[in-house]
Specification:
Blueprint (H helix, E strand, L loop, with lengths): L1 E5 L1 H8 L7 E5 L3 H6 L3 E2 L6 E3 L6 E4 L1 E5 L7 E5 L5 H6 L9 E2 L5 E2 L4 H6 L2 E2 L11 H13 L5 E2 L1 H13 L7 H12 L4 H10 L3 H4 L1 H4 L16 H14 L4 H9 L18 H4 L1 H10 L4 H18 L6 H10 L6 H16 L11 H13 L4 H5 L4 H24 L1
Parallel strand pairs: 2-5, 10-11
Antiparallel strand pairs: 1-2, 1-8, 3-4, 4-5, 6-7, 8-9
Helix pairs in contact: 5-7, 5-8, 8-11, 11-12, 11-17, 12-15, 12-17, 14-15, 15-17, 16-20, 17-18, 18-20
The structure holds adenosine-5'-triphosphate and magnesium ion.
């Protein structure tokens, strides 16, 4: 049997990037031989094994054929006769279809090295269209390598368009889609992921609510970039520049969905877009079975981002309600993430990227002010049950009034 490194490990070494996980392909072996060597099978019917010591994935060389709709619709054929070239041709991109032996000798039948040099994400073969997940994968690699100057090859974008129009994207499970989306959002240029999906017509299938933002104007005085879709991409870009966590990036992507619902006659104003957007945010959250923390933050940011921007003008009672809505006493971290998303929203405006955002510290100060209100003295005064809750609210409001006064001096 011969063993080769394949895929990302080869690609990233050639790019001079750190290699984190290594995938291996094994040519000329049977499953029985692998088991005899102590490899552990990953699934019962899949020719992939884990190394007894390193735990890395070793796959028997295989060919694949599409046999039906959706992800289940694949049959594969693994046998000792399958060659390395036959295994590599079933892969998505040429830069992912190179192999390297233990001497460092490269096998590159589909010219991945040339595409690395030319900074091109290019499909290996027409069989690319057999798996709709590849649309998301290519967009994700575009988001990862945009800083190196990579772009999607025009022919590949065309195949991605065909896949998007075929209805196959709908066959993806929420779990597989979310895995790609969440990884893509954490790349250096997540806005490129959305842009590429848009360029190939996949965005209007996967997230029509986001697609609908493009072409919708906002008032130039607050939003020099004007277009709501362009703004959303900039907010995402800022979130990545500021190394925000996934929940914040997800909230950034969805914060303005309500603007896509504004009747044209009201443009460029978007009255109550925060509230109108909530059902759309909920819809997208559910479509991809998004993790709870991301779901929650997206809804809160959708509902309250304008409060964040207007923080310094809010009445103490409104501030108190805002802090209450965030349950800031038990969930301080979530409020921090809200503040971060608001700040990214403000910075995601053309020419205003560097402008200070004093609202952030003001909101933090307000949260701290209410947190200093102690329960013990109220208990000692005999408050309990709902009355204790009311007393606590009164004291917190007092603290916020004092905070606001002191701040404006
Ligand atoms: P990463 O750095 O994100 O791990 P990777 O290229 O190693 O990138 P993996 O998902 O680990 O990506 O997959 C390993 C290899 O398997 C890929 O490089 C590619 O050759 C192949 N591959 C994975 N998923 C697909 C797919 N859906 N269609 C075709 N080939 C795929
Ligand atoms: Mg990998």
């Amino acid at each position: 049997m011969q063993i080769y490194k394949v895929g990302g490990a080869v690609r990233d070494r050639l790019l001079g990037k750190p290699v984190t996980d290594i995938d291996w392909v094994v040519v000329g072996a049977t499953a029985e031989e692998m088991l005899a060597k102590g490899f552990r099978p990953v699934g019962s019917d899949f020719p992939v094994f884990l190394h007894p010591k390193s735990g890395e994935e070793y796959a028997l060389a295989r060919t694949e054929r599409k046999s039906g709709r959706g992800y289940g619709g694949f049959t594969f054929h693994a046998s000792p006769e399958v060659t390395l070239e036959e295994d590599l041709i079933r892969r998505d991109l040429t830069i992912n279809a190179m192999a390297e032996d233990d001497q460092g000798v490269l096998t590159d039948p589909y010219h991945g090295q040339q595409d690395l040099e030319n900074r091109l994400l290019r499909h290996v073969s027409p069989a690319f269209t057999e798996d709709p997940l590849r649309v998301l994968r290519v967009a994700r690699f575009a988001a990862r390598y945009a800083g190196l100057g990579f772009r999607v090859a025009p022919d590949t974008l065309e195949l991605m368009r065909q896949l998007s129009e075929s209805g196959e994207l709908e066959a993806l499970t929420p779990e597989r889609s979310w895995k790609e989306i969440s990884r893509a959002l954490m790349e250096d240029h997540p806005q490129v992921f959305i842009q590429v999906l848009r360029d190939c017509g996949a965005l209007k299938v996967l997230m029509p609510e986001v697609e609908a933002l493009f072409g919708v104007p906002q008032p130039a005085a607050h939003h020099p970039e004007i277009d709501s879709g362009v703004h959303t991409l900039s907010v995402l870009e800022q979130a990545a520049l500021h190394k925000q966590p996934l929940s914040v990036r997800w909230a950034c992507l969805l914060h303005d969905l309500g603007k896509g619902l504004t009747p044209q006659s009201e443009w460029p104003q978007h009255i109550a877009h925060e509230h109108k957007g909530l059902k759309l945010i909920k819809q997208v959250n559910e479509r991809f079975k998004v993790p709870r923390d991301c779901q929650e933050l997206a809804l809160l940011v959708g509902q309250y981002h304008t409060h964040g921007h207007r923080a310094l003008e809010l009445k103490p009672s409104t501030l108190a309600e805002l802090l209450q809505s965030f349950d800031v006493y038990r969930r301080p971290q979530r409020f921090e993430e809200f503040i971060a998303a608001c700040e990214m929203d403000a910075r995601g405006r053309l020419g205003l990227e560097e402008r200070a955002y004093p609202q952030a510290d003001y909101l933090r100060g307000a949260a701290t002010a209410t947190r200093t209100v102690a329960v013990q003295p109220l208990l000692e005064q005999g408050f309990k049950g709902p009355e204790l809750g009311e007393a606590l609210k009164r004291e917190r409001l007092k603290a916020l009034k004092a905070y606001k006064e002191q701040y404006s001096q």
